[in-house]
Amino acid sequence: MNWKRVLRRLPGLVRQWWLKLLPQVITSCSLLAMTVGAIALVLLVHPLLARSEQPLTAAFNANRQTIAQKPAPDFPLQAHPLPPTLAQWSAPQAGDYFDQIEVVPVNYLVWSHVPITVYIQPPTATELASPFTAQRSQAWITAVSQAVQEWNRYLPLEQVEQLEGANVAVLRSPPSLQLETSTSQEATGEQRERSILRLGRARSAVTNYKVYIQGSLKDPASKPTLALRYTMQLRPDQATQYLQAAARHELGHALGIWGHSRSQTDVMYFSQVRHPPSISPRDVNTLKRIYEQPTRLGWALVDNDP
Ligand SMILES: [Zn+2]
């Protein structure tokens, strides 16, 4: 071997060897860096994990202790006596659509007292300023009052002037998507929405209900009960007969018929019809069956505090 030739070729050999080795060196460096990084991360996070475990356990135990110390109140499920108007009603041959009624967390939406108070929004100053809107709001009020009178034969209703404290509030505003969103978000307890009679794609009315605790759980003397409140929004810009049909239908929901009939001859038929029917024996039979059911509404909450 000529060592001079070897010496001459040496830089080339070294370069070749180095080029072959380079990828391995890079990989090794990356692996090393990743390993060091991972170890550093574990070291950094571990104390945090270890610290967060302790308060979580403590909080959980504290919560369990709170529950053990103060049990939640019971919500008794019982039927209320039938209002005399419904007790006297009898039309068994007409049938009903009770099987279409929704069972909600309080069971059935039964008013535990009569009369049920209804607030009907009066004309606003803006509406009274124009003969057209003044007349329109008056027609709306007449239609709603008419529906109240019709249902009053089966369940006593009383029109009140104050919105505050009214069991059912009937408002002259078009149901808006924005309002639906806000009502579902602020839902406390139970709250539902229902889209009813449609004109084209626009809703003409919407009714929602809210279950809340009346009285204070901290004060047994206030006799806390689960109470109910309905808000009905009914557009004023509809032909009188549809307005009346919508008011009649929505009021049916607010009295407890939380569901729809499959028959066009019932007020609670799920869609708008050309010739809106008046309250049918099937509507009243269904209402009566609902009021015969047990409910959690209106009963004094039993405090389990020993
Ligand atoms: Zn409906």
CATH domain class name of the largest domain:
Alpha Beta
The low-confidence parts are 45-69, 178-201
Element-by-element helix/strand order: HEHEHHEEHEEEEEHHE
- Which ligands accompany this protein? zinc ion
CATH topology of the largest domain: Collagenase (Catalytic Domain)
Distance N to C terminus: 104 Å
**CATH homologous superfamily name of the largest domain?**
Collagenase (Catalytic Domain)
**How confident overall, as mean pLDDT?**
80
Secondary structural class: alpha/beta
Named at the architecture level, the CATH assignment of the largest domain is: 3-Layer(aba) Sandwich
- Estimate what percentage of residues fall within beta strands: 15-25%
Cα Rg: 35 Å
Q: Identify the strand order in the major beta sheet.
A: 3-2-4-9-8-5
Helix share bin = 40-55%
* Bulk shape: elongated
Whole-number count of domains: 2
Count of helix runs: 7
Largest sheet: 6 strands, mixed
For the secondary structure, the number of strands is 10
